[in-house]
TrEMBL record:
Keywords: DNA-binding, Transcription, Transcription regulation
SUPFAM superfamilies: GntR ligand-binding domain-like, Winged helix' DNA-binding domain
Organism: Streptomyces virginiae (Streptomyces cinnamonensis)
PANTHER family: GLUCONATE OPERON TRANSCRIPTIONAL REPRESSOR (PTHR43537:SF24), TRANSCRIPTIONAL REGULATOR, GNTR FAMILY (PTHR43537)
SMART domains given in the database record: FCD (SM00895), HTH_GNTR (SM00345)
InterPro entries named among the record's database cross-references: GntR_C, TF_FadR/GntR_C, Tscrpt_reg_HTH_GntR, WH-like_DNA-bd_sf, WH_DNA-bd_sf
Record protein name field: Transcriptional regulator
HTH gntR-type domain ranges (all copies): 2-69
PROSITE patterns in alphabetical order: HTH_GNTR
Length: 224
């Protein structure tokens, strides 16, 4: 079975984000092909895609390596995301479907419930789904793709601390959804900007540990 390049790309990106491949580490086609159980062709295509996304860089005499973003590049990325998420909320207010609204309201209900119970790990996943759905509701493929890529890079570069007041954080999510439901684009943008600004304060630059082992991954086992 031929494993598509996009699946290999996702697998390599996930391993970069999780720290399996540390910044500056070499990414040889042969080693990656063996790790994921694929030929070198999809690996080569995946590395090209990851280089365009900023996860991989090509060095003279060394080949493909994991990129080493500077603190300034990380700060710029976070600032850019803080500008784009309010734009997505604004567009969602004009373009969302009933299906998007149903999912957003369901996530807010779950988030508020988990926040009251202090279930922090659930809140992290629910928050990610909320912002992903809000981006999808913008109806802008380019913006959706950019925000998705930026979420991966932020997860790679930063550790995000749990909100000090999770109940208030999810109340902010709820207010954004209310504005989206009413079609109030300006209020949705404003609320999303306030929320993004507060959330940014919880981001701390990540220091990746050096990985000493990289076991093989079975790509045919359902990894996406």
């Amino acid at each position: 079975m031929r494993i598509p390049a996009h699946a290999v790309c996702t697998a390599i990106r996930d391993d970069i984000v999780s720290g399996v491949f540390e910044p500056g580490g070499r990414l040889t086609e042969e080693v990656l092909a063996r790790r994921y159980g694929v030929s070198r062709v999809p690996v080569r295509e995946a590395l090209r895609t990851l280089e365009s996304e900023g996860f991989v860089t090509t060095r003279r005499h060394a080949g493909a390596c994991v990129a080493e973003p500077t603190a300034q590049e990380a700060a710029d990325l976070l600032e850019l995301r803080m500008l784009l998420e309010p734009l997505a909320a604004s567009r969602a207010a004009r373009r969302r479907t009933d299906a998007h609204l149903k999912v957003l309201r369901g996530l807010v209900r779950l988030g508020q419930e988990r926040a009251r119970r202090g279930q922090g790990e659930d809140l992290r996943a629910l928050g990610g789904w909320f912002h992903e759905t809000l981006a999808q509701a913008s109806g802008s493929p380019g913006l959706i793709a950019l925000l998705t890529q930026m979420r991966h890079k932020v997860a790679w570069m930063f550790v995000v601390e749990a909100p000090a007041r999770p109940v208030e954080s999810w109340a902010e999510h709820g207010a954004i959804v209310d504005a989206v439901a009413r079609g109030d684009a300006e209020r949705a943008r404003t609320l999303a900007a306030i929320h993004a600004d507060r959330a940014a304060a919880a981001h701390r630059l990540r220091r990746h540990p050096v990985s000493t082992s990289q076991p093989a991954v079975n790509m045919s086992g359902g990894r996406h």
